[in-house]
Amino acid sequence: MEAILATTAFALTAIGLYGLLTCRHMIRLVLCFNILEAAVLLAIVLLAYRPEALAPLVRDGEHAYVFPLPHALAVTAIVIGASLTALMLAFIVRIYKSRGTVYIDELKEWRR
Amino acid sequence: MMLNVSVALLCAFLLLVAVYVVVARSVLAAIISMGVFSMLVTAVFVVLRAPDVAVTEAVIGAGLITAFFVIALDKTSEQ
Amino acid sequence: MKRTTAALIVTVLVVLAGFAASELPSEAERAEPVNHAIRSLADTGAVNAVSAVLFDYRAFDTLGEATVIITTAMIVAFLAPQARASMLSVRMSGIVLYGVVLLLPFIAVFGLAIMLYGHISPGGGFTGGVVLSTSAVLYAVVYSAGGQQSYVLAPATNKMIENVAMTAFLAVGFFGMAASGAFLANAATGIGLGTPGSLLSAGTIPLLNVISGLKVGVGLAIIIISLFLE
């Protein structure tokens, strides 16, 4: 199962990177950025997984529990990623208001 | 064995939705697929025994981020 | 960029990363995991080990994250022109208008429950705060029809709550410093950790959960309202 999920995270990274390189619409670029972020989170959480361990809600001292630090990192990364997405979208709306386009290749000549 | 098969199916669907987000013709369809993608990632997190990450991803990825994108799309497509 | 060029770049990256992945330690070579989660129950009294990491061991990083969100809210609010602001122009039907009013109390209770039970069940301050800010999205989307501006809380109240919560977070940190010499100390300050699993346990963790939840919720609400007004 770890091999399947690691391959998935890897393929998601490739898909997100391909989208970042080929898409022209700026909102779609932000979507590809979110796919990349999900792939990285998947890899981080996969590091903590052990097949015999339980979820990190400690009931007693007898069972094994997964390592909680990658989970805490992932929660932090998700919340910061949300505010980062909001910031990028705000800038995209600003660019649309001043330049009248959302396509990134029409912004090459950075003049009025 | 059963878990392996279901996780493989889940991952295949995840990759399919991710490819659709990149290649979809309409941006609105891509945004809504991004919500589906977040819900599938949430399911993977539950399988990986990370309930905190799953709850956060469900609330933010499928709820809040979709609203952000739809608002931004509405603001950038008015003429 | 041309599709073929992009595909070539991604393929090269995949091949390189495949070589790197073959060098990773296999399952047998991995070190035996130490059971850190059990120790965190003894250290902090929190059943949820992720909460223990977020609000006790690495609470200072959480303070930094809260600073990131307040900075983002400031930037986005600065970008939005307040004077000639207009919201969405879609008109909603009566079913949506009344349905949202019925839904808002449930959303608020759900968010507060996730916040308050963050140390004994999955969830925590951030998740609860985001649920609370979802109500701001819903209200602003539905009731801003025809260009009028409507909020669950007035923008000035939002900013006031954000400032008060930031100050309260710092105050808890300085309390730990005064009591035991370490910023944001929890068990070392001498407050009882309580019975694991009860609502009032784990020292300052529930307090920090509620504070950071209010802060994150209000900060994201400011960001959303500013995106609307953009």
Strand content of chain A: under 5%
Percent in helix of chain B: over 70%
Give the overall average pLDDT of chain A.
Answer: 85
How would you classify the helix and strand content of chain A by structural class? mainly alpha
Extended strand count of chain A: 0
Whole-number mean pLDDT of chain B: 89
Sheet having the most strands of chain A: none
Q: Over the alpha carbons, how many angstroms does the gyration radius of chain A reach? A: 19 Å
Quickly give the structural class of chain B.
Answer: mainly alpha
* Shape estimate of chain A: elongated
The number of helices of chain B is 3
C-alpha Rg of chain B (nearest Å)? 14 Å
Number of strands of chain B: 0
Shape of chain B from CA axes? Answer: flat
Secondary-structure element pattern of chain A, one letter each: HHH
Share in helix of chain A: 55-70%
- End-to-end separation of chain B: 55 Å
Task: Please characterize this protein's 3D structure.
The complex is a heterotrimer of chains A (112), B (79) and C (230). With 112 residues, chain A is mainly alpha-helical. Chain A is built from three helices and no strands. In chain A, α2 runs antiparallel to α3 (69-99). Chain A is elongated, with a radius of gyration of 19 Å. The termini of chain A are far apart. Chain B has helices spanning 2-23, 27-47, 51-76. Chain B is flat, with a radius of gyration of 14 Å. Chain B starts with a helix and ends with a helix. With 230 residues, chain C is an all-alpha fold. Chain C has one domain (2-229). Chain C has helices at residues 3-22, 36-44, 49-57, 59-79, 94-116, 125-143, 155-180, 205-229. The longest helix of chain C is centred in the C-terminal third of the chain and has 26 residues, at 155-180. The radius of gyration of chain C is 23 Å and the shape is globular. The two termini of chain C are 30 Å apart. The model of chain C has no long low-confidence stretch (mean pLDDT 80). Classes of the chains: A mainly alpha (112), B mainly alpha (79), C mainly alpha (230). At the B-C interface, α3 of B face α6 and α8 of C.
